[in-house]
Structures are given as structure tokens and as C-alpha cells.
Structure to design on (475 residues):
């Protein structure tokens, strides 16, 4: 069993000495994978002190030098990529082939894309008699979840470091491999001590970090329930916050759209990483006339997604993270059964592999807008199909939850799709299957969060504008 028992503080690894730990299991076999040792408030104090001490020199070395460090970190992470893809696959259950591409290659590319902003981003702006300089916020507390562990660490650390901030990262205690790699990458890249500090821990450690007086900003990704608490704690000291939270994203299929493409793309989005994706499209909104055809197409699309061993190259759907996660998802399915919705695929009695935290990909049709299934984030492979009679109703359904992270619109033509996209309260809307753009702002309306990650929007989160007014000859 692996022992994840090291923090990374002030450029050195140090033993976690608290005695508290969580055991994690291989998602596909349920065999123990290792133990994550949890830190203490004292470890947080040490890490924040190191970040604070490292701040002035890190700001002084300048943007280009910081960008070089980001490139070096990307190279180091890439060199460990194969092992990391395998470890993340074991931790969270994502099929290995996808894990390599999505859990490792994409974040490595994001480190490089963020570094490249050093060449184009305007840090100093002239506005009349003001010179506005974008200055780093200071010491950043980064708290991340388990579902895309390296991706979420990257979304915070790469822009924070480029901005000139120093960081204390508290990664999820349920997916430790990515932060273990990051420690090695910081060493390999020769990152100055204290610029990145990593403290292993759970809610208790997260709480100490969020409330630490020398932390200027809290960048949090996780559930809306925890995000609310964290934001309230941070508000006590008026810390800057960035919150990337949950979602219940919808695809709206307009009359005349390519229903077959819409269904395939929605099913693929909903079941990616076994539904353990914040921006997964988990509601499919179709016209009542299209429902019978949609039902058929959904059943076909689900049948074409093999579930099984994540190490098998043909697997599209793996297990969930843990027994607890499986229980949570099954409770949503049990509720949907009780509500009597039209089961199109999966369900409680669907056959799944005997070992591993599997839940069969499940779809219910004719789901009511008020139901739990239509409103709560499941974070598992469960899709709800809702029907509308008029387009206005479809838009109201899409906007009808407290979330607003992502959405999709399928239309007969791009213009019609964009009109409806502009009516949706979501941070990211794809029209007719348009591809993901890593440079576009990613984040949510409503209870899906505050702030944005990605591209220049993600960088600006870690910068404060300082305006200096200068006397001009006309004054
Ligand atoms: P979670 O909220 O349980 O935990 C997230 C992080 O917060 C973990 O590191 C955890 O240890 C820490 N934490 C827990 N309680 C805390 C507290 N009281 N104070 C400080 N820190 C605390 O979320 P999770 O189960 O790890 O991740 C799944 C959730 O994350 C889903 O809701 C998903 O939608 C969301 N998510 C959102 C995005 C996004 O970009 N919007 C991306 C990925 C995941």
C-alpha cells in the first residue's frame, strides 16, 4: 500500500505527523490502494509562512522568468504522465485511455498555454492620466476536488504563479497522485522554495487554510455545499474568492436540430468519467414530439458505451470513485424509480461488474422539472430527459435550477442556436457540438460559483488592479 505521508513546504518534503489518515481504494477492484496522511493547523501555519516569505522575490523575478518556470513544470509533469494517468484512473475510475488524454495531456497543455500569456497579456494599462498595473493578489490558498485532480490544480496554480502569487495547495485527500507528482515536478523544475507549498488534509486543514490571516485569496473548486461555507469564512477577512462549484447543465434540442447528434453528444458528456464531471450535461431537454425518437436514440447511444475495466482500451465507462459515491448515486436512482419516471436505460437492477464501484449508465425520461433528479447534482452516470412544448418553456427549463455552469444548444442553424445560447444563464454554452476552448472563461452563474478559470480570465482572478494617477502637462 502506498503511503502518501509528505507535505511539501518551503521547497522540502516533510513528514505528516498527525496520525489521522484516510484509506483510498482502487475504484475498479475495491482493493486498498494506499493511505493519505492528514496534516494539521500547524502544518498550514508553516506552509503559509513559507509562501509569505517567498512572495517578494517571486514577484521581483518578473513575468518571463515565472513563465519559464511554468514551462519547466509542464515538462516535468509530462515526463511522469504515463504513471500519473494510470494512478488517476485507479483513483477516480476514468478509463485509462481517456485518463492519459484528459487527466494528464490536457493539464500539461494548460500549463504551457498559461505560460504563453506572458507574451500577450497587458499587465500595465494606460487610461487617461492613470497607469493601471495588474499586481499579484498575494498568498493564495488553493483547495481542489478529486474528479480531475491535476486539471483543477493546474487551473489555479498556473495562473496564480504567472501572476506572481505564491500558493498553498490543499489537494483532495481522495485523489493524492496528482499532488505527489506536482511535488516531484517542483523539485525537478527547480522552483524557488516556498512558491508552491502542498499540505495534505481534509476539511479541517482546509478550514485552517481558509481562515489563516496571511492568506489573501481563496481559490476553491468543489461542491456548492462546501463552497458556501468556504466563501462565508473567507468573507470574514474580506479575502478575494474564486469558487468553481457544482452544476446541473442542460442541452436544449430545438425543433429541426440534428437529434441523433444531439443525443450522442449529450450521452457522451453525461457519462464521461462516469458522470463525475462538474460541467457534465445531465439534463436533455427535447420537444414532446421528438421524445419517442429521442428515447430510441438514447437507448442506442447508451448501449454503445461499454462499461468495465478502466485498463481495457475499449471501455468507455468505468467505476465511480468510492463506495460512498456509489451509495449517493444509487440513492438518486432509487428516488427516480419511486417517482415513476420512464426508465430508458440502467436502473437499480442493471447488471454491473461484480467488483468495483460501478453504477450502470442510467437514463430516465419524462422527468418532472420539480423533481430531485432534475434539480440536484448527482455526480454519477445518470441522465434526465425533460420535454417541452414551446421554445420559451425549453429555455425556462434549462434556466430552472439554481446552477448555471454549462449548457448546450442544438439547432437547425447556428444563428438560431446562438439566439437561444444567449438566453441561457450558464458560463459556457456550446452550439451544435462546438468543441471545448481552453482559452475561454470557465465558471458558473448562480450556485455554480463566482469567478472564472481559463485563459486571461483565469489570470485576472489572481491580479489586483492598482491605478496610479500621474500629473499630465494639461493638468
Ligand atoms: P468537496 O466540496 O467535498 O471537496 C472539495 C475540496 O474541499 C476538497 O479538497 C476537500 O477536502 C475540501 N473541503 C471539504 N470541506 C471543507 C471545509 N469545510 N473547508 C475547507 N475545505 C474543505 O467536493 P468533491 O467531492 O471533492 O468534488 C466534487 C464537487 O466538485 C462536485 O460538486 C463538482 O461539481 C465540483 N467541481 C466543480 C468544478 C468546477 O470547475 N465548477 C470542477 C470540478 C468539480
Amino acid at each position: 500500500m502506498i503511503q502518501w505521508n509528505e507535505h511539501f513546504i518551503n521547497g522540502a518534503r516533510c513528514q505528516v505527523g498527525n496520525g489521522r489518515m484516510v484509506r483510498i481504494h482502487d475504484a475498479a477492484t475495491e482493493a486498498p490502494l494506499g493511505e493519505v496522511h492528514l496534516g494539521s493547523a500547524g502544518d498550514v501555519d508553516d506552509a503559509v509562512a513559507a509562501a509569505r516569505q517567498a512572495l517578494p522575490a517571486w514577484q521581483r523575478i518578473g513575468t518571463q522568468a515565472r513563465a519559464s518556470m511554468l514551462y519547466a513544470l509542464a515538462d516535468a509533469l509530462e515526463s511522469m504522465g504515463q504513471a500519473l494517468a494510470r494512478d488517476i484512473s485507479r483513483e477516480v475510475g476514468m478509463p485509462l485511455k481517456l485518463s492519459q488524454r484528459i487527466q494528464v495531456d490536457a493539464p500539461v497543455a494548460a500549463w504551457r498555454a498559461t505560460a504563453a500569456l506572458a507574451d500577450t497579456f497587458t499587465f500595465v494599462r494606460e487610461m487617461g492620466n492613470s497607469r493601471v498595473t495588474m499586481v499579484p493578489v498575494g498568498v493564495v490558498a488553493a483547495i481542489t476536488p478529486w474528479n480531475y485532480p491535476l486539471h483543477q490544480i493546474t487551473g489555479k496554480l498556473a495562473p496564480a504563479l504567472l501572476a506572481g502569487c505564491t500558493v498553498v495547495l490543499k489537494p483532495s485527500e481522495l485523489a493524492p497522485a496528482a499532488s505527489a507528482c506536482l511535488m516531484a515536478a517542483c523539485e525537478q523544475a527547480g522552483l524557488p522554495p516556498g512558491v508552491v507549498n502542498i499540505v495534505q488534509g481534509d476539511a479541517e486543514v482546509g478550514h485552517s487554510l481558509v481562515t489563516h490571516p496571511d492568506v489573501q485569496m481563496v481559490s476553491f473548486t468543489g461542491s456548492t455545499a462546501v463552497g458556501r461555507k468556504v466563501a462565508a469564512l473567507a468573507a470574514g477577512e474580506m479575502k478575494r474568492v474564486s469558487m468553481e462549484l457544482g452544476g446541473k447543465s442542460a442541452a436544449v434540442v430545438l425543433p429541426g436540430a440534428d437529434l441523433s447528434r444531439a443525443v450522442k453528444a449529450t450521452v457522451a458528456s453525461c457519462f464521461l468519467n462516469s458522470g463525475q464531471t462538474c460541467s457534465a450535461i445531465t439534463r436533455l431537454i427535447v420537444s414532446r414530439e421528438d421524445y419517442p425518437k429521442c428515447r430510441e436514440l438514447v437507448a442506442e447511444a447508451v448501449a454503445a458505451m461499454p462499461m468495465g475495466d478502466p485498463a481495457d482500451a475499449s471501455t468507455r465507462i468505468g467505476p465511480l470513485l468510492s463506495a460512498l459515491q456509489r451509495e449517493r448515486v444509487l440513492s438518486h436512482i432509487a428516488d427516480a424509480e419511486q417517482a415513476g419516471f420512464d426508465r430508458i436505460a440502467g436502473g437499480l437492477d442493471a447488471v454491473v461488474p461484480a467488483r468495483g464501484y460501478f453504477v450502470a449508465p442510467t437514463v430516465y425520461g419524462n422527468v418532472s422539472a420539480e423533481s430531485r433528479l432534475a434539480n440536484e447534482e448527482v455526480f454519477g452516470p445518470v441522465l434526465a430527459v425533460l420535454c417541452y412544448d414551446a421554445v420559451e418553456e425549453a429555455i425556462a427549463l434549462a434556466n430552472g435550477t439554481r446552477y448555471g455552469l454549462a449548457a448546450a444548444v442544438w439547432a437547425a442553424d447556428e444563428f438560431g442556436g446562438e439566439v437561444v445560447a444567449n438566453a441561457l444563464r450558464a458560463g459556457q454554452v456550446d452550439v451544435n457540438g462546438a468543441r471545448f476552448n481552453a482559452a475561454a472563461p470557465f465558471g458558473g452563474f448562480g450556485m455554480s460559483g463566482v469567478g472564472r478559470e481559463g485563459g486571461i480570465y483565469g489570470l485576472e482572478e489572481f491580479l489586483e488592479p492598482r491605478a496610479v494617477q500621474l500629473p499630465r502637462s494639461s493638468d
